Amino acid sequence: MSDTPEAAPEAPVAPAAPVAPEAAAAPAAPAAPALAGAPAGCPISAEFLPPNLRKHVDPKAPVALRMMAAKTLVPLSPSDMLGALFMLTFDADAGVREAADKTSANLPDRILTTALRDERVPPPVLGFYIDKLWDKDQYVEMLVLNAGTPDSAVAGEAKRCSARVAEIIGNNQLRVLRHDDIIRQLCQNPNVSPALMDSVCDFAVRSGQVLTDVPAMQEARVRLFGPEVITKPPDTGPSADQIMKEFSQLSDETAAPMEEGARMTLTQRILKMNIAEKIKLGTLGNKEARGLLIRDSNKLVAVAVIRSPRITDGEVLTIAHNRAAQEDVLRVIYSDREWVKMYPVKLALVKNPKVPQALAMRFLATLREADIKNLARDKNVPNAVQMLAKKMLDKKNAPKKEEK
Predict the structure, then answer these.
(1) Helix (H, G, I), strand (E, B) or coil at 195
(2) Can you give the pTM of this predicted structure?
């Protein structure tokens, strides 16, 4: 493994040409109307930037202001800088576009090592940078490990990356099951070892993933279930697409709650689904589907739900309160800086016995006095939390010693 970074730049050269243009063009593909304050074709708006700095990406602003941002002459955080540069690659002025593109490819390490790990960077921006930095392993690793990076961008990288990065991609079981094309692209990468490919395909087959166009997947089926499976089509159960068609309201976040009979039927259909299809439904379905799948016994399915781009803050709060929630799901919540900034979520995590004690104690120290008093009296919270809440109150209410 130690010598793979040296060999990596040579092998991916051949596929780089066809892959890179696709990834680079992806953000500009939608023909939707221009977003407010964004250049035409740009898939994100400037809302992530501080209001007083949005003028530096606004197509209506003077070219000089936009050029300042394109040359990083504007005081932006590392994450905001990546987003601003991405937006300016769509600018109507060729000079601004070229400057932004050149700057993006030559950002200093101190900027990239901070921003590329940030899950709150807009997904199209992360996809842009995985293409821009595709041959720099230290940055690509950060991007493929970033849950916010689009699966499609990771699939594009899977075809041309080094052996070390391929190992990271292949071991991300959630991505592998959520996005079929990752396995297809890994199979075409000459740097991927046969052992890794066998491991990834074996796991995918066991999880119910079926890719009839991928020989390595068919070999895995034979390896796991014997040669007789060649003539026997796999029984995969209903797919996410089939479920979404059967229950059309699952694609509508504003749909009214299902009637009890329909919900029971949906539950029965979900029970027959394999893991891979449950993950896809948990990612694409609406609140009704997520509410059923978040309780799935398989942690990958439950994590797919909490990581769904469609999940709402209200659902996150409900899950944070749930003592039956899986620890992996709660970990996603308390590791998210934006979610723990929400006071009700933080309070719910303090009360949840599955949250690590040290973390609950740290959150407890930031709560309001009224909530600390309630926790001190609440026998349903973890004992350590209750005791610390009492100590905090005793310390605050203890009479001051008279000065001698």
Answers:
(1) helix
(2) 0.81
